[in-house]
Amino acid sequence: MPFSRPHFGGSHRSPVFTACVYTALTAAVALSLAGCPTNDPLILSLGDDPGGAPQVAGTWAMARTEAGGTFGLFTFDDAGRLRQMCYQQDFLDYGVNSILLDGQPHVTDAGATLTAAARVAGSEEQVMITMAWAAQSGPATVGRAYATAGMTLADSSSADGFLAVDYTLSGEGSVLVDPIVALRLSDDTDGCLRDDEFEENDSPETAAELAPGEYGQLRCFDDDWYKLVVPAGKIATAMAIWDDRFGSVGFYGFAENGIDSVAAPFAGPGTYLVKVEPLPGEIQPDYGLVIQFFTEDQYEENDTQDTAAPISAGEYDLTVVDDDWFRMDEGMPAVVQVAITFDHATGDLDLELYDEDGTLLASSATGADTETVTGFTLTGKFLIHVFGYNGQANTCHMTVGVTPIQEDQWEENDAMDEAATIEPGTYEIGVLDSDWFRVAVGTSAVLHVTLEFDNDIGDVDLELYDAADGLLAISMSTSDTEIANGYAAGGEFLIHVYAYSGINRCQMTIKATPITDDRFEENDTQETAALIDPGTYEIVAIDEDWFRVDAGGPANIEVTLTFDSDLSDVDLGLLNGAGDTLDQSATLTDEEAVSGFSATGEFLILVYPYSGANAVTMKVTVTPQ
């Protein structure tokens, strides 16, 4: 049974398709289909003038883009003249033969006579091929075909274009027009059915022995058998690579007898056979094999969840030739971070993390040299799965990190009415669910709460409320820090710490700044503005605070506020005596500044907290004019 049908990473050639529209395919499609092949005017004229395009010298495979599979193989001589071709399937049911396009009749193995000729012409990037051939059985002509292929070279080894074929067989005809893709197989000009280096390897008895390595430019025209001799202590893997556009292959593993199927990987000591065969009606003109021998690691047999190898946090060197499973049990809630590093060019590996019940927590399947997963469970039990993509194999280095998350001393504090009472200070807390805390300062105050944690382990968010359950502040970033500040007239607060995703542990720091009204109250409106002189004042911004300055005549004024914006944000406005706005400042820094001119020398200053409350130093400077 098949054990692998993967493709090489990066081996699937996808040249840029360039649509070529030619004004005329060829006059060949209009010629009569009657007469003797050797008297065909087009065959005769093509044989007399084969043309040439040296840039296509070598052997090419041509595939119809929509139908798929190799349409034919074509060999051009050093002058770029088309000298030989073969079809994917039997030509008109008269046997697979390489067809010489020299205008002369040639007898096939099945007894048919084929006569064919071609002309090649074109520029540096565009090539036009005109072909004509005829089949004769005894004295009767049983079929003819005329074709034109137009190709635009994407580079020196690939091209795109179209193929038009007009053919008749036993009196019935058809015209086909298809987009095509062409691939240079080699620089070989000797013939399109040239065997690869391992022929004749058409049976188990003639299987070619392969050492570990990469093998390319193999041709699957019939069954290809290969032998792997695996020594003791080694595990072998075999991978076939091909380009689907030119046909597929069957890929199978067998015991040494060539009869009993064996699935990879192949454990030594032993001899195994690998069979590559063309699918019915197809050939594969260019495939590759990758043979790898590995030394089995100490954790086998760990190929299933039930046989997972027990491990703990640490570093491990693995040989991954099949499914490798590992089991962890931390005995408490925990977050696990797993990373594997490897050479992706050698073999693509993927990584998965499960809980103890087999529920997928995280997976990583990139095309890079590193795969990483992170997940948590409340039981601390995990399953790690390392495996090759599409049966690929490789060695890797696995790093496993564990962060235990213990319940803290304040549980159960999962609801607002279960909040744990604490004082300002620094605390280590485990965030497994919602955690509520109550802080009572005893006087009006601003509370400053900071959470610090590793967001890569789990995202934690923060909310701050007053005693009446009113939301004062919320912090929901994706950084390693969350900060919330708020003011409560009674100095009583509720703090809500919760995991947005995962679980985590964090450090919570609480600072309280008592806030009491300053000596200028009540100055909460323009009408009750406190009259002040130029100078420096310590004030408290709890609500709107208004101040009046009278310079006694035309003057300029400058007002500056300085404060700790981490506690709360304070803003500033400046008006003239008539209440017209002169300037305003509303930044997110520790300083706000305004300035302006009044012809009367009368000014109104407004200081107000954007959020919470704060202690502020206000400096007022007046310059008479």
Could you tell me the number of beta strands? 45
Q: Uncertain runs with pLDDT below 50, 5 residues or more?
A: 1-37, 89-96
Strand order of the largest sheet: 4-3-2-1-10-9-8-7-6-5
**Shape from CA axes?**
elongated
Q: How many angstroms separate the termini?
A: 100 Å
Question: Can you put this structure into words, describing what you see?
Answer:
The protein is mainly β and 625 residues long. It folds into five domains: 27-186, Lipocalin, CATH 2.40.128; 204-295, Jelly Rolls; 309-404, Jelly Rolls; 416-514, Jelly Rolls (Sandwich), CATH 2.60.120; 530-624, Sandwich (Jelly Rolls), CATH 2.60.120.380. The chain is 1% helix and 54% strand. The chain contains one helix and 45 strands. It has a ten-stranded antiparallel β-sheet, with helices on one face. The longest helix has 8 residues, at 41-48. The protein is elongated and about 125 Å long. The termini are far apart. Mean pLDDT is 86; it is low at 1-37 and 89-96.
Could you name the key traits of this structure?
1 helix, mainly beta, Lipocalin, 625 residues, Jelly Rolls, 5-stranded mixed beta sheet, 5 domains, disordered N terminus, elongated
Brief overview:
The protein is mostly beta strands and 625 residues long. It contains one helix and 45 strands.
How is the topology of this model organized?
Layout lengths: L40 H8 L9 E7 L5 E7 L5 E6 L11 E2 L1 E6 L5 E10 L3 E12 L2 E16 L2 E12 L2 E15 L21 E2 L3 E8 L3 E7 L3 E9 L6 E7 L10 E2 L2 E9 L5 E12 L13 E2 L3 E7 L3 E6 L4 E8 L7 E7 L4 E5 L5 E8 L3 E8 L5 E11 L15 E3 L2 E7 L2 E7 L4 E8 L6 E8 L4 E5 L5 E8 L3 E10 L2 E11 L15 E2 L3 E7 L3 E6 L4 E8 L7 E7 L4 E5 L5 E8 L3 E8 L4 E11 L1
